Automatic annotation (TrEMBL):
The keyword ATP-binding does not apply. Its main location: membrane. It is a multi-pass membrane protein. It comes from the Bacteria. InterPro entries: Bact_Polyamine_Transport, MetI-like, MetI-like_sf. Residues 60-248 form the ABC transmembrane type-1 domain. The keyword Secreted does not apply. The chain crosses the membrane at residues 12-39, 59-84, 96-122, 128-154, 175-207, 227-248. Belongs to the binding-protein-dependent transport system permease family. CysTW subfamily. One of its GO terms (cellular component) is plasma membrane. One of its GO terms (biological process) is transmembrane transport. It comes from Paenirhodobacter populi. This is ABC transporter permease.
Amino acid sequence: MKSPGLRLFAFAYLIFLYAPIVLLPIFAFNSGTIIAFPLKGFTLHWFDQLFSNATLGQALRNSLIIAVSTAIFATTLGIFAARASTRYRFPGKPGIMGLIMLPLVLPEIIVAVSLLIVLLGIGVPLSIFTVILGHVLAATPYAIAVLNAAFSSLDKSLEEAAYDLGETKWSTFRLITLPLVLPGIVSSMLMAFTISLDEFIIAFFLAGEQVTLPTYIFSQLRFPKQIPMIMALGTCLVIASIVLLTIAEYARRRGIAKTGAKDTGGFL
């Protein structure tokens, strides 16, 4: 029997977690410039201001370039690492995988400052490219964690049957393995994309004169009149996050259906 106290705690936790997100669209459509109740009235002015802001548009373009590049590179590296981790044995495997996963437990500010010192030391100018390097380093462990599960749930006998029928390792990977783990790859890319789009500390240290979406939002928080526009931007980001989460959950369930694995729960 479930404890009433536990239910109350779970309900209070959900309110604490999601109440700020619910307030975003409420104040985004409020005509007042002060974030407080009572509301003044309904308006779309802040969304008009949002979409006509050239600096914000450039920040969004930079962030999308960085996020898409990070998703591609982190997932590619994750495929190689997850494949090696789940299918092969080699000397020093636990230590190597531990080092690869180390960014999961390192504070981001340590990673950002270290990268800044190294890049400036070797003469690499700060730009979007350096932010991509930092985000790939941070997102790759998450991609490996997702892809490890995808490769581990794949039945090895399918690959062995392909070898017996004369397929090479590359053709087996391309024709058998890759299509079966494709939902995991999609989930990995979406996770890496979201992590990169949301990341602030590494972008703050490594972007140089380039502005990204999180750094732009941070800079605008100093101006109270810009807060309603930031609320409108937050509303758009929440909607985008829900869409990405839905796609990731669809890919996860499709992967479970393909491999015949047991569904132990997911995003939704």
